[in-house]
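Students often ask why we bother encoding 3D structure as a string. The short answer is that it lets us treat folding as translation between two languages. Here is a chain of 138 residues written in the first language.
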Amino acid sequence: MLPGNRVAIHKSLEQLETFEWPAPPADATGLVKAARSLHKRPIGSLNAHELGRLIGQDIGLPWLLPIALNILRETVADQRLTGFYDDDLLTAVLTRKSNVWRSYPQLAADLKEIIPLLEDTSPYIHANIQEFLTETEA
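And here it is in the second language, the structure alphabet:
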């Protein structure tokens, strides 16, 4: 079982990882500052955009990927009704390196169940999907 499936979502990544990141330098990028701030927030309070930012930087994957997959699964119906789907979160999840999916094969299987449910994805998402499927079949 993954940590994200058994850890209370009221905890922050900082608590889950038991590591406090140092304050970023004054000239740090906005992404670095945002990541540190998000690292201190309860993981259950993170929205799709915030999850995508952290996942895209390979931060907190054992805890955040399960949450992201739940969001993606739950919003598939919204895509059919509104034509909108959170491509940024989907891209962040799909583009993790193959070693992540080898480490968490159940999450890869879960994502493979979500992919066929998607309709009208953009061409760049098609490329990400194909790359993910290729990497997880090897």
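Translate back mentally: Confidence is low (pLDDT under 50) at residues 1-5. Keep this in mind for the problem set.
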